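New to this. Comment on this protein:
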Amino acid sequence: MREETPKPLYAVVKAHVTARIRDGSWPPGTRIPSENALGPALGVSRITINRAFAELARDGVLQKVAGVGTFVARDKPRFGLMTIEDIAEEIAGRGMAWSCQVLALAAAPLPAEAAQALGLPPGAPVPHSAILHRGDTAPIQHEARWLRSGYSAGYLDQDYRRFTTFAHLVRTGRANEMEQAVSAILPDAALARLLDVPRSQPCLVIRRTTFTDGVAMTFSRLVQPANRFEIAGRAALAPL
């Protein structure tokens, strides 16, 4: 009988961590022992623990927060394929605290992609916002949004640390149609830093345009690390 090849030590560590999660010892949101603490407990080096944690974080099992620790990942926020939801509510619904960082909030020249979606000339100055949404302390989504001038009164005057741009648009906008597409990218250096991911981490991009009576009013580019969220939807089908 052929003997089984022993598992690499990092795989043994991964199995130990996932077993503790599955048996309920480490429920979602739990801060697990540090690399320095777990290494001696399992009789392996810190480098081995680091590799195991890195692979589990890549797979969405763990969440590493710089300067804080490593946590068991909570359920991923879910974004609809055929609906628009408030990201703050989606994050809160997964047991995480929503917060955000306002990166930009001013009139700005339209980039080519947004100009095409809105049917306006590139470079035209329009209201623009860029927001980094977090669940607990982990970046979940980078949201960049451009609006047709005159749409959504007071858009640039709000404190979006208190509520989302979506919430304001629901109160003031008049959108009655939506179009969106999803694609995958590898982030550039600046986006990778904001989302706290390596440049090799796939991210999904939602490009969303909303319309009022057939006229494009907003264009949004939403980027999320693929291991921190999911896209899902359910719709009725016509009888076959």
